[in-house]
## 1
Amino acid sequence: MINIIGLGPGNLDYTTKIGENLIYKSEVLIGGKRNLDSIKNFRGSKIELNSNLKEVLEYINSNKEKQISVIASGDPSIYGIGRYLSQNIDKKDLNIVSGISSLQYIFSKIYIDMNDLYITSSHGKIPDFDYILSHKKVCMVTDDKIGPKEISLEIINRNLNKTIVVGENLSYLDEKITVGRPEDILKIEKFDMNVVVILDEK
Ligand SMILES: C[S@@+](CC[C@H](N)C(=O)[O-])C[C@H]1O[C@@H](n2cnc3c(N)ncnc32)[C@H](O)[C@@H]1O
């Protein structure tokens, strides 16, 4: 069986019990370095996922008799590895275990519901900001090319009244949540790994 397990936003206290049990019962653990390093005292073997996704998929598909767990940050079905693997592994061999997404986590921290939320990502693409900013409530996972400052500029260029929330290193000890107008966000020198919430001003 192949498990794809969401670890939650980072701090392992947010990993589900069912996910944790499956991880420690696995013979092989596959994941990015940060995630693999976070699983201590694992007795099986670990395979690091980097730019070797195709090879790892081949390994998984030819070792289906093994108990393999692929670990992913947040929820694997939200801009994670869940999509690729479920498109390329027979569903009868696959078990996906949700985790708490960084998106869910930030909304609980700012006491705002996620109803009617538009979820998007800037990873590896040029976002359609006209479309994105037409929504009242947006949450974006970002990369190092398009993050809080670039989003703020897009808002300023369109003369829109929006509040921005930047959640950095969520659930870790150095977690930081910044709330401000786009002009305030531009004044901040740099941001660590973050999700950005964009809200219509009331
Ligand atoms: C490939 S996406 C994975 C999203 C993940 N599946 C989820 O549900 O949170 C990676 C992006 O998620 C966001 N992210 C993940 N964990 C985070 C955390 N602890 N703090 C802030 N942002 C995080 C960042 O935007 C990061 O670039």
## 2
Amino acid sequence: MELKNNTILITGATSGIGLEMAKQLMNLDNTVIVTGRNKEKMESVKKMYPSLNVYPLDVTDVTSIHSLYDRLIKDFPKLNILINNAGLMKSIQFTSAKMEILTDEITTNLAGPILMTQTFLPHILRQKNSAILNVTSGIAYFPFDKAPLYSASKLGLHSYTQSLRKQLKKTNVKIFELAPPRTDKPMFSGSEEDNAQVDRIPQMPIEKVVQTMITGLKRDKLLILPGMSKLLRIIGKIQL
Ligand SMILES: NC(=O)c1ccc[n+]([C@@H]2O[C@H](COP(=O)([O-])OP(=O)(O)OC[C@H]3O[C@@H](n4cnc5c(N)ncnc54)[C@H](OP(=O)(O)O)[C@@H]3O)[C@@H](O)[C@H]2O)c1
């Protein structure tokens, strides 16, 4: 797809991979809208990158999604690309985990992108060169037992992305998936022992993850698997 002169919305992009996507996509002459929840982080991003458009959004809250939609279709009627990037990861031990936190990752990482897609799809369907990209993870293909619900949420998002692609086959919207490997800004934080084990896994710089995403989008590669994620997908197919 053409990666110039688009209007791109990236959720959860006041830090990490989302912010790096925003910077690289802005450098390619796109209008970029980023969202966040934390006011201080949003203000500091706006200060550092005045050309970025920063809006509040909580993807677990339907009212917040609808109010963002109402504002964006007025402010950016040409919005043609949605990147569902917002996500969180928790270290969960089934023997001790509290019931209240068990659905957090499913709500943010899986229900969030589904609600965002359902809200923005009618608008995106009317645009040219349009696309939705869902950020899953290498862990979608090879579950990480220390973060079991994160793994489940990302596999769910992978499956949802495949169905969405099939249902929209006859439209002009392209449905992409980016499955990053562990990056140099890792999300996992668990016990000392778990952290030591995870620290042995190689890390890919987020700049490289995003460069791979951009090359993949330009080549219409619908499943983008940077670095280790390719291998995780192969191993995942043969595990019990
Ligand atoms: N880092 C890795 O190694 C890695 C590897 C594979 C996949 N990924 C995926 O890449 C994506 C970006 O992660 P990251 O590493 O860049 O992490 P990050 O820096 O922690 O960014 C996550 C973003 O998601 C936002 N977010 C969390 N809950 C939200 C909610 N309910 N509503 C709206 N926004 C919410 C956060 O916003 P606030 O700052 O406002 O909380 C933050 O901006 C995630 O989907 C993650 O699963 C990351």
